[in-house]
Design goal:
By secondary structure, the protein is an alpha+beta fold. The strands form 5 sheets. Strands 14, 15, 16, 17, 18, 19, 20 and 28 form an 8-stranded mixed sheet that branches. Helix 7 links the parallel strand 6 and strand 7. Helix 4 packs parallel to helix 5, helix 11 runs parallel beside helix 13 and helix 16 runs antiparallel to helix 22.
């Protein structure tokens, strides 16, 4: 299960999960008073069970039930004593039985596989080792490896089952570490795919430093000799493989299983195995059930159960082949994943199938990439062939209807999962009563139309966008060349319903990360300047501020349909240019009206740094501005700015001379390197040259008193009554003596007020200083969609 924790991601995930709960597809309530596995009462509806992981149906086997009852009567409901002090003979007997299942290897049992990982990983991974995580390895492994950070043991991540990346990591790092641990699942829990174990074993023959850690929880029981699992027999020859599994799925009981490659590792964990030694053992009822299940695994009955399930899987796969349903999972496993792509399709299909009386699960972000949403369901020995046929029939009936409702095709889903397209499928999008136009230059648009939509809303009027287009083309560095897209949607009357623009550029994936995270990544970029960078389509540009999306207010009833047209155009750009990330930005966090629409289109919300704005700058114009500020702000300004006011002078210039412009760029470059609140590439000098010739821009320059020596410069955009100080350059060597930053800001406010400006858009960062000057902090959200979240996961595991 993929896991990701980015700054503000917990809030983003909570928002998405809350929406899924509101749609009635998660947090459902099991109401059955008696349950036998094949059907369950969910809420008030009786449903056929295609959602649990008791693959062989052993949890209802009479032997397990009888032994569980017997152990409860003999030993009670718990045996609450640390294994360090006392171990029951039945626990040792269970481990002996499991050892027989696993070809005589030493085995320890834990109360859960999650506890197992937390206990074992810190012991087996040495201080000079390296851990490489598969992108889709289970969240419990990823959580356990976080404890290695205190020992400064590096944890890296590679794309899911990407052996090319794995080998490159091994080659690059094998001489720096004693052991390289590659941690994987045997059968992956979401997409039901298998680890490429044969190729991994080949690597282990080539690279003696490579060690393998496998969680085969979903492969246990339904496959292999004595039900040892899908992967275990492929690892028997390898003495550098730590193999773990569970008794909580196909095994029919509860607890984690650790299978050790050596007696030394076994003894180390047995003596001091974290949760094994500090926590309670498997309780007697489950201990009895586990022993009964192990005995079945060591009998011929296990093969009868495996055969029964195998026949049902074969039956299901034959039925799926007769449909156009995009099944993503491996046909060998009992985990099925039907891709739906966007959450909106997944929610609606899931709800329809639940309403038809089939219990299935939604596979959604963060367990899978947001654009890889789908229905995850299991086939077990609880299901009859008729149940299976009925489910597939319901899926085949409802899937195209949901696609039609969402104006999607089966090939849209196939693209999201990189499957072969259906060449015979005729894709016809529903015609909308809108005139949708996408332009590649502002020159193609009527100036009056554009400016009427965005007047006073930002620094991206018609002429400013001409300037941007000219500045971000023909530059030597690829990050300094942007492509521009302008979207205008009109109704049949020719009225503009929606307008916005996008830039396509190479951007840093830590754009919204915490400052300390970006600082650590920048160290890596000294050697690799494009490390963790992706081709990204962003609403607006990396040099614009304001309200980038215009929607005509009196047509709110059509907003969703108009926005869907926008997303279709975004998807076209993504496909044509292989865009990794899309960022829609600067939406008020107080306005939740767009959140569900964006979530449906596979975007998750992420809090941005606050936007700072001074409103009503002309209020109480007769009073000195200082008198309008808080007492604390007054004291601060008097002490740091006014007290030193004789040391400097502030002047507004429409242009800079050549020397001043070059100095400004040097000072800006210094600020850019330090300011990581929103981490972007430095602007090219061409932008400053072009701005210097534009009448809508001006420069606030702070000079040393009675001197031409420049202490700092701020670049400002004028848009009617709004003022946008957007780019600043500071001489940091003079900041302590002259309070350069605070002095520039204070003088800028006074000058803007004197000249009649009503608002100042101060942008992000330095909230505290801008608040002193009367700025309000506006909470802003961005909406992000990614082809996959790999780079975000790298940032999480390597830098947080």
């Amino acid at each position: 299960m993929a896991k990701i924790n980015h700054p503000n991601f917990n809030d983003s995930i909570t928002s998405l999960l809350t929406e899924a709960e509101d749609r009635g597809v998660i947090q459902l309530k099991f109401e059955s008073k008696i349950w036998e596995g094949s059907q369950m009462l969910v809420g008030e509806q009786l449903m056929k069970n295609f959602g649990t992981c008791g693959y062989l149906g052993l949890e209802f086997h009479q032997n397990l039930i009888n032994k569980s009852i017997d152990f409860t009567k003999k030993f009670g409901t718990q045996f609450s004593v640390s294994r360090t002090y006392l171990t029951s003979r039945d626990s040792i007997y269970l481990e002996d039985l499991l050892s027989q299942i696993f070809s005589g290897k030493k085995v320890l049992t834990f109360t859960s596989t999650t506890m197992l990982h937390a206990a074992i990983i810190p012991i087996i991974v040495g201080s000079k080792d390296l851990v490489i995580l598969d992108q889709q390895c289970h969240a419990s492994i990823q959580t356990a490896t976080q404890s290695l950070a205190s020992k400064k043991i590096p944890v890296e991540i590679i794309r899911h089952s990407n052996l090319e990346m794995l080998e490159k990591k091994i080659k690059d790092l094998r001489n720096k570490h004693d052991k390289i641990w590659y941690m994987i699942d045997g059968v992956y829990s979401m997409f039901g795919d298998l680890a490429p174990i044969d190729e991994i074993n080949r690597f282990m023959e080539i690279y003696p430093q490579l060690h393998l850690y496998i969680d085969d929880a979903h492969g246990m029981s339904w496959y292999g000799k004595n039900g040892c699992g899908r992967i275990f027999e492929s690892c028997l020859k390898n003495e550098r493989t730590m193999y773990v599994s569970t008794m909580a799925k196909g095994f029919g009981a509860m607890g984690g299983i650790a299978v050790f490659p050596s007696k030394e590792l076994f003894e180390a964990v047995k003596i001091y195995g974290g949760s094994l030694t500090h926590s309670h053992p498997i309780p007697p009822p489950m201990l009895g059930a586990s022993i009964a299940s192990a005995e079945i695994h060591l009998s011929d009955e296990i093969y009868e159960l495996q055969y029964s399930l195998r026949e049902k899987l074969k039956f299901a796969n034959e039925l799926f082949l007769k449909t156009d349903l995009p099944i993503i999972s491996n046909p060998e496993t009992p985990i099925f994943f039907l891709g739906t792509g966007q959450p909106a399709v997944g929610y609606k299909l899931n709800k329809r199938i639940l309403d038809e009386g089939f219990y299935v699960n939604i596979g959604m972000f963060p367990a899978v990439p947001i654009k890889n949403t789908g229905l995850r369901f299991t086939i077990t020995n609880h299901n009859s062939k008729q149940d299976i046929e009925d489910l597939i029939g319901a899926l085949n009936y409802h899937f195209p209807k949901v696609l039609e409702e969402e104006n999607k095709s089966s090939n849209d889903i196939r693209r999201a999962f990189r499957l072969d397209l259906n060449k015979d499928l005729e894709e016809k999008l529903e015609e909308k009563q809108f005139d949708v136009n996408l332009y590649s230059s502002i020159y193609e648009i009527n100036q009056k139309d554009w400016d009427s939509c965005f007047e006073g809303k930002g620094n991206f009027d018609y002429n400013s966008l001409i300037l941007l287009e000219e500045s971000f083309k023909g530059n030597s560095k690829k990050e300094e060349n942007w492509s521009f897209y302008y979207l205008i949607i009109k109704n049949v009357k020719g009225e503009i319903l929606l307008a916005t623009f996008f830039t396509l550029a190479l951007m840093k994936d830590d754009l919204f990360s915490a400052v300390e995270v970006s600082a650590a990544i920048e160290i890596k970029r000294h050697l690799d300047p494009y490390y963790l960078c992706s081709k990204t389509l962003i609403m607006g540009s990396l040099s614009s501020e304001g309200e980038h999306l215009f929607i005509k207010k009196d047509v709110e009833q059509n907003n969703q349909e108009v926005l869907k047209c926008m997303f279709l155009k975004i998807n076209e750009i993504q496909k044509e240019h292989q865009v990794q990330n899309v960022i829609l930005r600067d939406f008020s966090e107080d306005d939740k009206s767009l959140f569900s629409v964006f979530h449906d289109e596979a975007y998750f919300s992420l809090s941005m740094p606050n936007s700072n704005v001074i409103f009503d700058l002309q209020k109480d114009k007769e009073s000195p501005y200082l008198s309008l500020l808080s007492p604390k702000a007054k004291r601060n300004i008097k002490y740091e700015v006014l007290k030193n006011s004789s040391k400097s002078r502030y002047k507004v210039q429409s242009q800079l001379d050549e020397r001043e412009l070059k100095l400004f760029y040097e000072l800006y470059s210094s600020v850019s390197a330090k300011n990581l609140a929103i981490n972007i590439f430095k602007y090219p000098f061409k932008l400053f040259l072009n701005i210097n010739e534009n009448k809508n821009w001006e420069f606030g320059v702070l000079f040393k008193a009675n001197s031409s020596e420049i202490l700092g410069i701020v670049l400002c955009f004028k848009n009617n009554k709004s003022y946008f100080p957007l780019i600043i350059g500071l001489d940091y060597s003079k900041n302590e003596e002259f309070f350069v930053y605070k002095t520039i800001l204070y003088n800028l406010v006074l000058d803007a007020r004197e000249r009649g400006f009503e608002k100042i858009y101060f942008g992000v960062s330095a909230d505290f200083e801008k608040k002193k000057l009367g700025a309000k902090q506006l909470k802003k959200s961005a909406f992000i969609s990614s082809v996959d979240q790999f780079n975000f996961e790298v940032i999480e595991h390597s830098f947080n």
